[in-house]
Amino acid sequence: MSSPEHSPLGKSTVYADRYDAGLLFPIPRQGKRDEIGVSGADLPFHGVDIWNGYELSWLDTRGKPVVAVAEFRFPATTPNIVESKSFKLYLNSFAQERMVDASHVHDTLSRDLSAAAGGPVSVTLRTPGELAGTPLAEPEGVLLDTQELDFDNYGPPEGGFLASHDGHVREVLVSHLLRSNCPVTGQPDWGSVQIAYTGAPIDRAGLLRYLVSFRNHTEFHEQCVERIFMDLSSRCAPDELAVYARYTRRGGLDINPFRSSDPLAVPGNPRGARQ
Predict the structure, then answer these.
(1) Is 263:228 a contact under the CB 8 Å cutoff?
(2) Does the active-site annotation cover 150?
(3) Taking the complete model, does pTM exceed 0.85, yes or no?
């Protein structure tokens, strides 16, 4: 375990095609949480990071390839995230490995990912046939992006844009303009973000300017969502808050972090058109 610069990201890589759990590269969450004032085990939010893996295959006992689509759920309470390229390399390492059946693959994935994350990770495997006819679904809510505004701040994220007005509302706001950048490679990460809250009305122009100010910011997906949650909490003080980002796919994986003030909130996993 080490810092992102020691990960496989941005480096020439030989792709293993035999199973190797050692390819997984955990990165502690705490370093970035310290930057946003989150310390200790008593987190100010609840949530999960949902990963979808579209490039998973192995061999059955007769050597015939099997394919599946995987959903992975990493609780926000796990002490580590898994660096995405190492995750891709790990999944690819099943390609020429003979496995007894899908249950064997499931149990292996759950064991290895839970060990890397430092806590229980749930795994769901589905065949392409089970996903046939699955509809696309965009995040629901009032779209912020239609506002006619001037922009000139693209990073670092500017919490000063956030403000609230008198009153009390329950509403859901959505933007498709979220972009941040990988802290190792500098490659852009594109996403949509849904913000559901109860409390004083959040200024929509300021909120959109704030989200756009992530455009040149370098952080992993999970870290960006926690920063948004904490900035909204401190600047606007909502009674209830949930932030859900749906990022586009890279390397056969998409990452979708969800953070909420409600300990019972469980997000769905709808696939958007850009995913």
Answers:
(1) no
(2) no
(3) yes
